[in-house]
Amino acid sequence: MTTDCVVIGGGIIGVMTARILAKAGLKVQVLEKQQVGRESSWAGGGLLSPIYPWDAPEVLWPLISRGNEVYPQLCEDLLNETGIDPEYVQSGLLNFDSIETDKLYYWAKETDTSYQRVDQKQLTEIEAAVNPLYEFATWVPEIAQVRNPRLLKALKNSLLNNKKVQIKEGIEVQAVNQVKERVSSVKTSEGKISCQYVVVAAGAWSGTFLKDETRIQPVRGQMLRIEAPKGLLQRVLMCDSTYLIPRQDGQILIGSSLEYVGFDKSTTEEVAKKLYTNAIKILPELQNFPIAQQWAGLRPGSENGIPLIEESDEVKGLFINSGHFRNGVGLAPASCEMLVDKMLSSE
Fold first, then answer.
1. Percentages helix, strand, coil for the chain, rounded to the nearest 5?
2. CB 249 within 8 A of CB 230
3. Beta-ladder partners of 299
4. Considering its fold, how many domains does the chain have in total?
5. Assuming Cys at both sites, which of 5, 16, 59, 280 could form a disulfide with 197, CB separation 3.0 to 4.6 Å?
6. Which domain holds residue 124?
7. Whether residues 109 and 206 fall in one domain
């Protein structure tokens, strides 16, 4: 079996890379050992911004800005192509933490992002259900979100309709083969696939294909889902590293933990209690609604939270696009564009 490029991993980075490669005219096979979009890309909250964007590494700021440019049209295109609405919403963010003003100002200026320091009266006008004990907040109206499970489903369906792309689930890549320091094929649980390029986009499992496996480490994040009345919450709320994300149908996501426990995806009562307690402090009405679901995902952690978007030093044609930590959805459009540009100009 032969193709131009094998993409290892069917998360947001893998499928979006495949989409861009196919538009560039390449034949692509996406190989996913489980199900497309069911690991970290599914488990997150779908924010298109770091939860504290002014604290994110400055090198990521233009990538996040590019994602914000791409997503409205991308979601509209996917809806037209597949009938699945990724639910892009510019919901805005209210942050109740004490924020270093100079850092916030510099970030807003460099990224051309507006913000406002609001008092209690203004806060109530923006989000009426917020705890009245909060006297001030930082309001960033341009922060947007997508409903990430629907986004992944739409991307998958779009690729399935693309004659240049094949998606294979339940297939494991066992090795990347080379001839004279050049990618030649991949060995899989179902046989060999000859190819010119390989893109490692396997999320927390990407280290398996790197010379230094420690460059990508799994970081567990636990989240909760509350089934609340539609309209109870309109904005993303953030305080003490706990965030609340409203969906259009009333569901509210609460996240998330940061745990270095290897590849353990189990959930804990301790984290659930902490997240729920923090959420009720921010939005008291939540105490009227029990936890509907708790889950955990493994983020691909990397040094300083900066993703690896590069070609291997040892093997020509072997690329890595991983290590996006908590920001895979927001960073996906720009990092995939960057990876494809590097790939097509590497010869």
1. 35, 30, 35
2. yes
3. 219
4. 2
5. 5
6. 93-142+217-301
7. no
CATH number reported for the structural domain that contains residue 37 in this entry = 3.50.50.60
End-to-end CA distance of the chain: 23
Are 223 and 271 in contact, with CB atoms under 8 Å apart? Answer: no
Among 256, 251, 196, CA closest to 26: 196
Distances (CA, A) of 250 to 72, 247, 282, 313: 21, 5, 17, 48
**Residue corresponding to tokens 């790197």:** 210
Say whether pTM exceeds 0.70. yes
| b/e map 59-75, b = 16+ CB within 10 Å | ebbebbbbbbebbeebb
Q: Which of 125-134, 190-199, 209-218 has the lowest mean pLDDT?
A: 209-218
As a whole-number percent, the residues of the chain with pLDDT over 90 amount to 95
* CA angle at 245 for the pair 40 and 270, rounded to the nearest 5°: 70
User: Residue 35: how many CB atoms within 10 A of its CB?
Assistant: 13
Amino acid at 294: Q
**What single letter denotes the amino acid at residue 278?**
N
CB 286 within 8 A of CB 129: no
The pairing of strands 242-246 and 28-32 is unpaired
The residue assigned the tokens 């094949």 is 166
3-state secondary structure at position 246: strand
